Amino acid sequence: MSGSAHKKILIVEDEKDILQLVKLYLEKEGYRTVTASTGSEGLAQVRAETPDLIVLDLMLPEIDGLEVCKRLRSAPETAMLPIIMLTAKAEESDTIIGLELGADDYVTKPFSPKTLVARVKALFRRLERKPEDGPTRFIYGPLILDLTRHEVTVKGKEVPLTAKEFGLLEHLLRHPGRVLTRDVLLNAVWGYEYYGTTRTVDVHIRRLKQKLPLLDTAILSVKSLGYKLKEADGSG
Question: What is the pTM of this model?
Answer without folding.
Answer: 0.74
